[in-house]
Design a protein that fits this description.
Layout (H helix, E strand, L loop, with lengths): L4 H41 L13 H8 L7 E3 L5 H6 L5 H8 L39 E2 L9 H17 L17 E6 L6 H13 L3 E6 L3 E2 L2 E2 L9 H4 L13 E6 L3 H18 L3 E6 L19 H9 L2 H11 L5 H42 L5 H11 L6 H12 L6 H22 L26 E3 H15 L3 E5 L15 H5 L4 E3 L4 H13 L3 E5 L6 H18 L9 E6 L12 H7 L4 E3 L4 H11 L6 E6 L6 E3 L15 E4 L4 E5 L3 H14 L4 E5 L2 E3 L6 H9 L2 E4 L7 H12 L11 E3 L9 H8 L3 H13 L1
Parallel strand pairs: 1-2, 1-3, 3-4, 4-8, 7-8, 10-11, 10-12, 12-13, 13-15, 14-15, 18-19, 18-21, 21-22
Antiparallel strand pairs: 5-6, 9-16, 14-20, 17-19
Helix pairs in contact: 1-4, 1-10, 1-11, 2-8, 4-11, 5-6, 5-17, 11-12, 11-13, 12-13, 13-14, 15-20, 17-18, 19-23, 21-25
This protein binds thiamine diphosphate (TPP).
The site of thiamine diphosphate has 14 residues, from β5.
């Protein structure tokens, strides 16, 4: 015993030294983060950056949280988490400033390449070829976004994927995606944003599903200016949520209350709590209260306008940096001098980081300015151009647009002189560069671009059965699930009964409820579940039961799925397929076709509108080979129509953006899609008997739209064109009209006024008569065609 004593003492000393070191490292991190907030705000107020939102007041809680964030874990958070990012080694202070300046160089702002406001972080999930990186050995951050609580639905999916992987008899294919489902999704949200339905829906689903989700609420008492008394029952989110608390033999979530200035207290609670989530997949909520916001909400205003004097005093006293410092001194871990040195070091470091970031941001623009002024000076004889040159040269903080404006203004005076030609060439070069910087990567552009998938036609055996549309899909999904172990499908009534139209009938029994399953009625978080799973490298098919209910799930699709690839400049992809059914059946909420709304809100997704189930299956095959998100709208009235079953069910593809001419004709081009195609076909048969020959084009996908300009080719032949769909006037038919007339130059080939024929302004009325008088019908089409022929 005795002989061991010196060792024990030494070990204790070592572990004390390490402990002390760790704490001082954390203290330095919180000081650096605070400096970054203070300096960041100054950069906005002096005009170098446009807007700033900072994490001051949340520093200590976030270094505590970062301690338990391990490789393989995911974060779905919001704009307050700079300290967490610094402490996790996922952002440098310099990168933080680069994003503040909107530096478009991805090496400088690795989160968004200048596309997002500051503190909207992300890490890279996919490589340049669109293949998933090793996410098991990296700390992973899904891309932040501004809509409050918008991160919640995605967080559910990121956590759910761990559950899926743990239950799955994981094959080698998933080695880089999971370590037996041990990954926790850390989710952060402000206390005011918990008022959003997103929060409640997500936590309810997490509690039902039992997924490894750790939700941190930074409670600083206000949502901008509105205090929590106006936000939350009993002004306390953890109190309001008591009914969610997991008990013995129930599901639910564990709820903890922490104080945001209490470094030691937080670490003590978090260590076992996070381990418990990892081990058991029981979700937890950490209500981090008594958090401050020393600089107010953002650079858009000051908090003195809405915080009482007493509150401001309280915030000063309970500032987490002050409290941490006092705790360190009280526990004799360091004295005031040592801490002062750390504070000064942090100040200096942040100052230098800011200077570096600014230099990296401004240098390329200054190079453009230099080259532009040199080119302008070659046009010596024109004094007004020399003025433009001087103005540009003396601009201390030029923007890329200032360069383009200067060149454009000079080019207004363009002659054929070599100097102007050189200037124009440089202008073209810069415009290409700017397009790449600001407009690229809406969709995958590399090998995983869905647009690279070319057509493989369906083949048919001689004795090919003619079966119901839903049976075509059922056989297709059966083959798909046999052949692709990354595909998962879920939604309301999709598991046990195999969806409301039996596309998945019997398949849960065969493939198990880990791959095909029912969900609660919660469209918003079904979408989020799909988004999160797709981000983790799976191929989810998430169902919205009827197209009319897409509205409930639209926000995460529009704000999150559709923008992810763009806002990370290609570093994250969401290969989610949203499956739904619509266009035409019965009544106000079961026959909607709100395609204009979809087209306006889902740029960044592909929109498939197959006319039957054979085409739909071919489109699924195409989509599953690319990495982009898509919406598949099956025809609600098409499941019981007979179709011939292809023999190459999982091989044939319907390429996106390639319309199909389903009937050739010479007099009128009829452009349409989806359910109404059959009505157009019926009308065309009658018109044929009246000697009016219709060419019917099924566009097949609205996004992308007619990539080969097949429609204008048809119009050249017929000189008459009509766009027919079931949307409201000015919706998708107007979209198609615009594309053909403007983009394809169709106006040059029309002999009579082109038309759109659409549903009425209102939702479709119930019953067969309601349908007939609300949506375009055979007679409408015949009358319009005759009118056009007589015009
Ligand atoms: C859907 C939506 N509504 C409103 C806003 C504007 N907004 C931005 S932050 C914010 C307050 C959020 O407060 P809280 O959740 O407490 O987080 P904090 O900013 O205090 O950290 C509001 C209303 C928004 N970004 N998104």
């Amino acid at each position: 015993m005795e002989s061991n004593a010196p060792d024990t003492v030494l070990q204790e000393k070592l572990s004390f030294d390490n402990f002390r070191k760790e704490i001082l490292k954390d203290y330095r991190a919180v000081c650096e983060s605070r400096e970054a907030s203070l300096l960041g705000r100054r950069e906005v107020l002096t005009g170098k950056a446009k807007f700033g939102i900072f994490g001051d007041g949340k520093e200590v809680a976030q270094v505590a949280m970062a301690k338990f964030f391990k490789p393989g874990d995911f974060r779905a958070g919001y704009y307050r988490d700079q300290t967490f990012m610094f402490a996790s080694g996922l952002s440098t202070v310099e990168q933080f400033f680069s994003q503040l300046y909107a530096d478009p160089d991805i090496n400088n702002d690795p989160f968004s390449a200048g596309r997002q406001m500051n503190s909207h972080f992300a890490t890279k999930f996919v490589d340049e070829n669109g293949d998933w990186l090793d996410l098991v050995n990296s700390k992973n951050v899904s891309s932040d976004m501004a809509p409050t609580a918008g991160q919640m639905p995605r967080a559910l999916g990121l956590a759910y994927a761990s559950k899926f992987f743990r239950k799955y008899d994981a094959s080698d294919d998933f080695k880089h995606l999971t370590n037996n489902g041990n990954e926790v999704c850390f989710c952060t949200i402000g206390e005011a944003s918990t008022s959003e339905g997103h929060f409640w829906e997500t936590l309810n689903a997490a509690g039902v599903l039992q997924v490894p989700l750790a939700v941190f609420i930074w409670d600083d008492g206000y949502g901008i200016s509105v205090p929590k008394q106006y936000q939350t029952i009993k002004a306390s989110i953890s109190t309001a949520m008591q009914g969610f608390q997991k008990e013995d033999n129930t599901n639910g979530i564990n709820i903890y209350k922490l104080k945001g200035w209490d470094y030691a207290g937080m670490c003590e609670i978090l260590e076992p709590a996070i381990q418990n989530i990892r081990d058991t997949h029981i979700p937890a909520l950490f209500h981090v209260d008594e958090v401050t916001q020393p600089q107010g909400h953002s650079t858009s205003g000051s908090h003195e306008r809405y915080k009482e004097y007493e509150r401001l005093l309280w915030e000063k006293e309970w500032d987490c940096l002050k409290q941490m410092k006092e705790w360190i001194i009280a526990n004799t871990l360091a004295d005031g001098d040592e801490l002062y040195e750390i504070e000064m070091g942090a100040k200096q470091f942040v100052k230098q980081s800011r200077i570096n970031a600014w230099a990296k941001y401004i240098d390329p623009i200054k190079k453009q300015v230099k080259k532009t002024t040199a080119l302008l000076q070659k046009i010596k004889y024109d004094t007004s151009i020399q003025d433009i040159s001087k103005e540009l040269a003396t601009n201390h903080e030029p923007l890329r647009k200032d360069v383009i404006k200067a060149i454009s203004t000079a080019l207004l005076k363009s002659t054929n002189s070599p100097a102007f030609i050189e200037l124009k060439n440089y202008y073209d070069e810069l415009m290409n560069e700017n397009r790449e910087i600001f407009n690229s990567h809406l969709y995958n552009e590399g090998p995983k671009s869905t647009l690279h998938i070319s057509e493989i036609k369906p083949t048919y055996n001689e004795d090919a059965p003619v079966i119901n549309g839903y049976e075509v899909l059922n056989r297709y999904f059966n083959k798909l699930f046999e052949s692709n172990n990354k595909v998962v499908a879920f939604g309301e009534d999709l598991g046990m009964i195999g969806d409301v139209n039996q596309g998945f009938s019997g398949l849960q029994n065969k493939f198990g409820n880990n791959r095909i399953f029912d969900t609660g009625i919660r469209e918003l978080s079904i979408m989020g579940q799909g988004i999160g799973m797709a981000l983790r490298g799976l191929r989810p098919i998430a169902e919205i039961q009827y197209l009319d209910y897409l509205l409930y799930g639209l926000q995460p699709l529009s704000d999150d799925a559709a923008t992810t690839h763009y806002r990370t400049k290609g570093q994250q992809s969401v290969p989610l397929i949203v499956r739904t059914r619509g266009h035409r059946l019965e009544g106000i909420w079961h026959s909607g076709s709100p395609m204009g709304m979809i087209l306006g809100s889902l740029r960044g997704m592909y929109i498939c509108v197959p006319r039957n189930m054979v085409q739909a299956a071919g489109m699924y095959n195409t989509l599953l080979q690319g990495n982009d998100p898509a919406l598949m709208i099956e025809c609600l009235n098409g499941y019981r129509l007979k179709e011939k079953l292809p023999s190459n069910l999982i091989e044939y593809t319907v390429p996106l953006g390639i319309p199909e001419i389903i009937k050739e004709g010479t007099d009128i081009t009829m452009v349409t899609y989806g359910s109404i195609t059959r009505i157009v076909q019926e009308a065309a048969e009658i018109l044929e008997k009246l000697y009016i020959s219709c060419e019917i084009i099924d566009v097949q996908t609205l996004l992308p739209f007619d990539r080969e300009h097949k429609i204008v080719a048809s119009l050249k032949k017929t000189s008459r064109i009509i766009f027919i769909d079931e949307d409201v006037p000015g919706g998708a038919a107007a979209f198609m009209y615009n594309r053909v007339m403007e983009e394809q130059g169709g106006y040059r080939w029309v002999d009579v006024a082109p038309r759109t024929l659409t549903g009425k302004d209102h939702r479709p009325s119930y019953g067969s008569d309601g349908d007939y008088f609300s949506k375009p019908n055979v007679e409408d089409i015949i009358m319009t065609a005759k009118e056009m022929m007589e015009e």
